[in-house]
Amino acid sequence: MGSSAYDVLVLGGSGVDTIVYVPELPLPYADSYMIRPGIEARAGQTGDFVALGVSALGLRTHHLDMIGDDQAGDLVRAFHRDRGIGLTEVPLPGGTKRAVNLVGPDGRRLSLYDDSRSRESDRLPEDLVRGLAADSRHVHVSITYPCSFALPLLHEAGPTVSTDLHDWDGENPYHEPFAYGSDVVFVSTTALSDPVATMRRVLERGRAEVVVATAGAEGSYLLTRAGGEPLHVPAVAPRRPVVDSNGAGDAYASGFLFGRLSGEPPERCALYGAVAGAFACTVPATASDAVDRETLLAEVAALS
Q1: What is the 3-state secondary structure (H, E, C) of 249-277?
Q2: Which of 138, 161, 189, 290 fits a disulfide with 56 by CB distance 3.0 to 4.6 angstroms?
Q3: DSSP labels, 189-234
Q4: Neighbours of 40 (CB within 10 A)
Q5: Closest Cα to residue 195, out of 227, 230, 143?
Q6: Nearest in space to 277 (alpha carbons), one of 232, 241, 235
Q7: pLDDT in tens, 48-59
Q8: Packing angle of the helix pair 46-56, 266-280 (nearest 10 deg)
Q9: What span, in angstroms and rounded, lies between the C-alpha atoms of 172 and 168?
Q10: 147-174 burial string, b = 16+ CB within 10 Å, else e?
Q11: Rounded (10°) CA dihedral 7, 83, 99, 74
């Protein structure tokens, strides 16, 4: 898949989630709850899951991020080591990023992110970013400090860039460097009052070739520089029961990027993403798994 050392460099987005299963969401106030199957901490935030997803699809993958010298960081290091995913880590003084995910019986998730771990002054070494980016076909950038400061370095190095804006409201200026500095932009429709207007603005103001708005069970919408109305790509029914939506968006992005780096058109890429996202919904929140290339291609062929 090219002469570069890596097909995909994932920048940022590593961390540990503590999974708490709750009887319903939103969770009514009570003095206490008895929780089953229990409370468990496991490595895997957005960058980890994208790295897992593209690696499982056979893409040569490397992950670069700032990680703490702590027990949570050990979990992140083991996550990559056990799955054969290359990891270059830079010390994070505030400690490894963490979150608590409340997961309801229907698989819906509410994430509580610990915002005290990172600071605006955190930086990745410029020479390190340049070197890894120059040796990669594509870079997927998480919307975490210090990744926004690395974007100009990625542009200098030359690989294509993607990002996931997650639940951006279309207005928060923090997301704009990512939105306008990426060639492929993923965004959830969850907080967008006018998804189409936001998609058009990203195309008009930035360098994006395609904007993908994901809408959960409603599927996804594509808009490219060719113009026109967004193309709707339906969601794919999972082959197994839905147990958790955590990581579905990251899996979608992984499938889409696999299609793009394989030379597929955007609509086909979105189908790859839909299949990968559906698979992720069948994986318990306490586990980490991703669809492999053979399974993905077989399911896409069956749907085509």
Answers
A1: HHHHHHHHHHHHHCCCCHHHHHHHHHHHH
A2: 290
A3: STT-SSHHHHHHHHHHHS--SEEEEE-GGG-EEEEETT-SSPEEE-
A4: 14
A5: 230
A6: 235
A7: 999 999 999 999
A8: 110
A9: 7
A10: bbbbbebbeebebbbbbbbbebebeeee
A11: -120
Residue 142 vs residue 240, higher pLDDT: 142
pLDDT, position 223: 97
DSSP-derived 3-state class of residue 168: coil
Angstrom distance (rounded) from CA 229 to CA 290: 32
Q: Which amino acid is it at 267?
A: E
Cα radius of gyration rounded to whole Å, the chain: 18
Query: What's the CA angle centered on 41, arms 72 and 256, to 5 degrees?
Result: 90
Please report where in the chains the tokens 């189409």 appear, as a residue. 196
Q: How far apart are the first and last CA of the chain?
A: 24
Reported as half-sphere exposure (CB side, CA atoms, 13 A), residue 275 has a value of 25
Taking the C-alpha atoms of residue 15 and residue 79, their distance in angstroms, rounded to an integer, is: 10
Residue-wise pLDDT for 135-170, tens only, equals 999 999 999 888 999 999 999 999 999 999 999 999
Sheet with 184-188, side-by-side order of all strands: 86-91, 61-67, 6-11, 136-141, 160-164, 184-188, 210-214, 220-224, 231-233
| CA 2 – CA 9 distance, rounded (Å) | 14
Rounded distance between C-alpha atoms, residue 221 and residue 210, angstroms: 10
All domains in the chain, ordered by first residue: 6-27+35-303 (3.40.1190.20)
Contact 255, 295 (CB under 8 A): no
Q: What residues contact residue 34 under an 8 Å CB cut-off, 6+ apart? A: none
